[in-house]
Structures are given as structure tokens and as C-alpha cells.
Amino acid sequence: MSPCQGASMTRRPLNPLFWTLAQIGSRVRSSAPAGVEDPPLQLPDPTTLRVPTRHGDVDVLVQRPAQPQSWTSKHPPVVVHLHGGGFVNRNPAQDRHIARHLAAHLGAVVLLPDYDTAPTVHYPVAEEEAVDVVDWATAAGEEHGWDGQRLVLSGVSAGAKLSLNTCQQLHQAGRPRPLAAVLVVPVTDAVRTDRTSPTARPAISPLVQRFVGWAYFPDTARRREPLASPRLDPSLSEAMPPTLVLTAEHDTLATEGGELADVLRAGDVEVVHHQYPGVDHGFIGDDTALATVRDALERMVTFFRPHLGEPDAGENTTTRQTPPAAASDS
């Protein structure tokens, strides 16, 4: 089967009512939180690349670090960050504050794929697009000005699951895994729709859980596949690099995030797990929890930095080379 044929079999017509319900049901945020400080160095505006996948081209938002950069013979590392949205919302720009912070403080190029979501597609389109973008980022670094061999993954909620899925697929194919991963409020189980929270009105209610299952995982038999529910993958630890897991006390998904950290740790994966008290699922973009947002961003940088490597000790950081332009940036 050709990639185009595969795409046509998984895409569905867009229903306006469905789209409206998706926006309401998942409480999507449409922008990065206000109040997060700008990086100390002015960053270039993000550009967009069109990246080929087996399901067609995907737009990827590209946030480059400030100029001049701290490389001489090296290109900067690259972060592939996958946004959340319950597999029904497409808005990578909601995580621009994350991309800007990582670009500024790691000196990395940050890629935010605009992967396909329900209702136009269903499982496993987003999972396959995610790994295809990572494969492309690994191979295309020389052309576009980053080091594809120094690649790390991050993701929020559904995007954290896609980060897990990317590592699973790379492991299954026998290809190198990312150097590290950060998973913020990860979802690991497509089977359960009965999770509960200690708060009266959680962001992810049973209704939202059922809606996401119906929307993106319509074939209930496939929800038990390891790619749909990484929690059920017996070889997950073998696929994962060093991992930071960030969870929220009031989040319906907090328990499975903690269980994920325990499973990876038991499988000899380097794991750091931190749970934030008093916040719910969407804390990473919450205007009312800016101290928590800032702390999470700093934890991401601190965790990634040693895995990406530092500039050589003798490097002159005042005389730096300008990276080659990305030919397809727009």
C-alpha cells in the first residue's frame, strides 16, 4: 500500500458540529500563557517547514535560537516538541513559550509539528506522522542547520504519548532513540475512560475521556495495541531514553504518569519524576500558575542540557559562526 493510499483510508470528512464539540470538550487553549518572561536574547520569529510523512506533508513550526550562537564546528541540537489537545485539536503555537524557552536556554532549534488529528484522521495517523517527522529531523539536519544526531523529544498530554510512541516505533525498527525525553502530563492508556480526580471539576472529565476515545480511537479493539496504549507495551523500557516525567496533583492522568515513571525506573531507565501540587492537567499553559510554568520550563532545560552536551571548554563564545539558512523555511 502506498503512503497516499494509507492516508485516504484513515481520513474522514470534517463535521462542523464535531469540530465545535472538540473545542468545547477538550478545553483547548489557543495561545501560550501571558506573563512568561521573554528570553534574555531576542529570538528570531518562528518559520514554517513542510515535512513529508507517509500521510502527506505536515507543517512544522521552527523556532531557532538567538544569534550569534554558541557553536563553531557544531550545529545546534534539535528538540522535537509535540503539543497536546486530546488528538482533536491542532495548535502547535499554544506551546510557543516552551519552544522559545528551550531555544533560548539550550541554544537548540525547536520543531513543533502540526500533526493531523480527529475528526479528519484517527489512530494511528498522528503516531506515524510523529515518528516520520523525527526521522526527517534526524536526516535533514545538515541541510537545515541543526545536528540531527543530538535530538531530544518533549511533549504535553497527547503529545507526550506521541513522544512515547516515537520511541516505541524507533525501537521496533532498530533505529537510534532520542538522547532524552520530557513527558508533561502524559496519557498512556487509550482503553480507560473512567479515570477520576481529587478535584470536583477536573480538566479531563469522564465525558472528555469518552469523547477522545470515540473521536480518535473509534476501533475499540485497537485501543489495546501497545502503540495506542503504551502502558500495555511490555518492552517500553527498552525503547525509552533518559526521561523526565512531570505530573499534576489534580490531573486525572496523574496516577498513570507516576506509574509510567515507576515502570521505566524498574526497567533501568534513568527517570526523574516531579509532581506539582495544587494544579490540574493544563498547568504548563496556565496564566494563573506562572510560578509552576516557569519551574517546569527550567526543569526541562536542566534535564535536557547534559544529554545534549555542552560546547567545548576552549570554545570562544564571542566569535561564533552563523548557521546555514534552512532552504525551505517560510
UniProtKB/TrEMBL annotation:
Name of one Pfam family that matches: Abhydrolase_3
Keyword Hydrolase: yes
Hydrolase found in the keyword field: yes
Domain of life (superkingdom): Bacteria
Every Alpha/beta hydrolase fold-3 domain range: 79-284
Transmembrane segments: none
Keywords associated with the record: Hydrolase
MF terms in GO: hydrolase activity
Residue span of region Disordered: 307-330
InterPro entries in UniProt: AB_hydrolase_3, AB_hydrolase_fold, GDXG_lipolytic_enzyme
Record's protein name: Acetyl esterase
Species of provenance: Kineococcus rhizosphaerae
